[in-house]
């Protein structure tokens, strides 16, 4: 995910601390300016979290779960206000913003249930001894979260960190700071003082928080920022959890319905204007169905452009980055079946775009574009497509559309990613978790396994003492 709240410079002092000015991505008008946390405020937040850590760690897990349920209820009550802020700051439609907040509520409720039953393991040893493991909180958790689904993503990390007994300092993206502040106000009321705090700011604040000595750092954002955070964690000894950028491939086999495949591709590439971590970023389609597939995908994009359902990108900086990738592809020989031009008028809108004739020399095929762009490369065989899908430095997710079980099994075994999706670009069972690979991150970012990421394990061995030696009679 490019250019998120956690783009951390090498020198934190270089950050501009004059405040964050937010423009409405639909109209371009200035909405407000939000002050950035000063260095001493970041330091103080971590100190307060540290002072509250022992009491919160000793709080009964069931009581922590109850607090999380209270936070979920408060979030549900505030959903309308938060959805309005989300729409204003990021351009995401209110209906989609509400869906993201509902997902956040569900996630908090899920961790409220999972936390109290998060358990250790019994170990096999001497029959007359006891051996087991105990999960303990790591301490202070620094959470740096993105703007593209700001409530749902934040609630996952916040919920898992708090219910396992950690205290939290949360930095939301500087692209939705007012929403981040409001979310913090809603959630913090459910917890004792100092257990959950919010600091706002951009790259410099993120750098300070990553270097603050927190015991665990969780980050969802770009790979460049994630690499800096990993380096900071290596220096401080913090445990680091990262879900970073992706360049997720979609592989379309010759035996599938090309119109249905195009619908899946459009959903994966154009939903939330392509601003989804696991969006379809590059498409490899078998030549046997390529013509029908591309025609149907062009129609899907034209439909979205015609009815105005493509929301704006988060800001003009993001739009410029997306258009630079498209321009690079066109200059290197790609053809735009639909879109590809900067629209007139205010705001950060960008059309749903379909590019054909793409090759691996183009940035749209090798980097994360993070916009409503569907670049297509035609391949002669499934093996050719799989080889290309396996290439690159990212390892977040991949999708395969095929009715050939041998090809499906081959793809599952070969794809070097954390998540493989077969015949559905989005979906999956609740509680699913994966470990990103390559520069896409490390550690479990969701599901029950996230509780393990926020915990450290202590092994306990208890043996009976030897029988006491008989005492000699004393005079």
From TrEMBL:
* CDD domains documented for this protein: ALDH (cd07078)
SUPFAM superfamilies of this UniProt entry? ALDH-like
PROSITE patterns attached here?
ALDEHYDE_DEHYDR_CYS
Q: Does the keyword Oxidoreductase apply?
A: yes
Q: Name one Pfam family in it.
A: Aldedh
Record domain Aldehyde dehydrogenase: where: 17-460
Q: What keywords were assigned to this record?
A: Oxidoreductase
Q: What is this protein called?
A: Aldehyde dehydrogenase
């Amino acid at each position: 995910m490019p250019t998120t709240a956690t783009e951390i410079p090498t020198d934190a002092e270089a950050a501009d601390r004059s405040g964050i000015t937010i423009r409405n991505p639909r109209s371009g008008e200035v909405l407000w300016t939000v002050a950035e946390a000063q260095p001493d405020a970041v330091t103080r937040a971590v100190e307060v979290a540290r002072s509250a850590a022992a009491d919160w760690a000793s709080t009964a897990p069931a009581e922590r779960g109850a607090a999380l349920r209270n936070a979920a209820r408060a979030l549900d009550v505030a959903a309308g206000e938060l959805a309005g802020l989300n729409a204003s700051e990021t351009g995401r439609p209110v209906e989609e913003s509400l869906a993201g907040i509902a997902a956040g509520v569900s996630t908090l409720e899920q961790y409220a249930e999972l936390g109290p039953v998060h358990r250790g393991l019994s170990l096999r040893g001497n029959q007359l001894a006891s051996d087991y493991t105990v999960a303990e909180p790591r301490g202070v958790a620094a959470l740096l979260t993105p703007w593209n689904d700001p409530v749902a993503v934040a609630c996952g990390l916040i919920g898992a960190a708090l219910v396992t007994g950690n205290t939290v300092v949360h930095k939301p993206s500087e692209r939705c700071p007012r929403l981040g502040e409001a979310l913090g106000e809603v959630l913090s009321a459910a917890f004792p003082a100092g257990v959950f705090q919010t600091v706002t700011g951009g790259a410099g604040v993120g750098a300070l928080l990553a270097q603050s000595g927190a015991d665990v750092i969780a980050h969802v954002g770009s790979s460049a920022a994630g690499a800096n955070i990993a380096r900071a964690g290596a220096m401080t000894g913090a445990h680091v959890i990262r879900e970073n950028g992706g360049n997720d491939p979609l592989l379309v086999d010759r035996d599938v319905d090309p119109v249905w495949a195009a619908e899946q591709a459009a959903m994966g590439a154009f939903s939330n204007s392509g601003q989804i971590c696991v969006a379809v970023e590059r498409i490899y389609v078998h030549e046997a169905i390529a013509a029908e597939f591309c025609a149907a995908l062009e129609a899907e994009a034209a439909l979205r452009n015609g009815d105005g359902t493509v929301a704006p990108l988060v800001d003009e900086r993001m739009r410029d980055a997306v258009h630079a990738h498209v321009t690079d592809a066109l200059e290197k020989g790609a053809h735009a079946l639909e879109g590809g031009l900067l629209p007139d008028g205010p705001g950060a809108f960008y059309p749903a775009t379909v590019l054909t004739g793409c090759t691996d020399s183009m940035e749209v095929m090798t980097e994360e574009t993070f916009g409503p762009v569907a670049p297509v490369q035609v391949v002669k065989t499934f093996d050719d497509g799989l080889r290309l899908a396996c290439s690159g430095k990212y390892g977040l997710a991949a999708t395969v559309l095929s009715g050939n079980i041998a090809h499906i099994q081959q793809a599952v075994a070969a794809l070097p990613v954390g998540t493989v999706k077969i015949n559905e670009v989005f979906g999956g069972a609740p509680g699913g978790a994966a470990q990103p690979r390559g520069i896409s991150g490390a550690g479990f970012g969701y599901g029950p396994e996230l509780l393990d990421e926020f915990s450290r394990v202590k092994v306990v061995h208890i043996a009976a003492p030897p029988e006491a030696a008989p005492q000699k009679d004393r005079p």
